[in-house]
């Protein structure tokens, strides 16, 4: 049994990327894993100030929700990020959270496999490439980990437009394979 953390970065409740995340969660649970989904809806996450206090303290000096999220990520075997693609890049809130995990850089971590689920209004195959490259930059800072898989669903621009899309089943199956 693995401990799986799924971070849904969309701030729209029931968004398309959040629906992919839910299916990944269900698949991982079906496979017998311990799964926690963290939604950024309602979380307080400030911008990184670049003060570098985190490198001395092993935690961020900003008193918001990030330190709690980091502790869960550090203790997970698997981390799955779910994001909408805005202007061909990961959501701003996902990037801010990634920046804020700088405190983890010198700490011990368990995660080995990192997954990315993404959605966008655009449907061309190159749409998720910049977001994937951004996440790969984070993964590369943790040499015992790897980007295990990505799943992209394009052509979904309205709320819940992904309903009935075969990508939901793919997310479920991906979660089962964790």
Topology:
Elements: E1 3-8, H1 16-30, E2 34-39, H2 53-57, H3 66-74, E3 78-86, E4 89-90, H4 92-100, E5 113-119, H5 129-139, E6 146-153, H6 166-176
Parallel strand pairs: 1-2, 1-3, 3-5, 5-6
Antiparallel strand pairs: 3-4
InterPro entries: Flavoprotein-like_sf, FMN_Rdtase-like_dom, ISF_SsuE-like
Domain NADPH-dependent FMN reductase-like: 3-120
Protein name: Flavodoxin family protein
Total discrete domains: 1
- Residue ranges: pLDDT <50 for 5 or more in a row? none
- Overall mean confidence score, pLDDT: 96
What radius of gyration results from the CA coordinates? 15 Å
- Element order, helices and strands? EHEHHEEHEHEH
Q: Helical residue percent?
A: 25-40%
Number of helices: 6
Q: Judging from the principal axes of the Cα atoms, what is the shape?
A: globular
Structural class: alpha/beta
The CATH superfamily is Flavodoxin domain
Biggest β-sheet strands, sense, barrel: 6 strands, mixed
Using DSSP, what is the number of strands? 6
The CATH architecture term is: 3-Layer(aba) Sandwich
Strand percentage, roughly?
A: 15-25%
| CATH third-tier fold name | Rossmann fold
Task: Return the CATH class.
Answer: Alpha Beta
In whole angstroms, the N-to-C terminal distance is 10 Å
């Amino acid at each position: 049994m693995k401990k799986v953390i799924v971070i849904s970065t969309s701030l729209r409740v029931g968004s398309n990327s959040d629906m992919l995340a839910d299916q990944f969660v269900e698949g991982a649970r079906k496979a017998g894993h311990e799964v926690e989904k963290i939604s950024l809806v309602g979380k307080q996450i400030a911008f990184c100030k670049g003060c570098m206090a985190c490198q001395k303290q092993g935690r961020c000096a900003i008193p918001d929700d990030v330190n709690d999220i980091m502790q869960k990520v550090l203790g997970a075997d698997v981390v799955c990020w779910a994001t909408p693609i805005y202007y061909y890049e990961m959501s701003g809130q996902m990037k801010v959270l990634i920046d804020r995990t700088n405190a983890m850089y010198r700490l011990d971590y368990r995660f080995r496999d990192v997954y990315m689920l993404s959605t966008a209004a655009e449907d061309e195959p190159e749409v998720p490439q910049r977001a994937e490259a951004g996440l790969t930059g984070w993964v590369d800072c943790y040499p015992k980990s790897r980007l295990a898989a990505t799943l992209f669903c394009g052509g979904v621009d309205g709320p819940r437009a992904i309903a009935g899309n075969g990508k939901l089943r793919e997310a479920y199956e991906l979660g089962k394979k964790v």
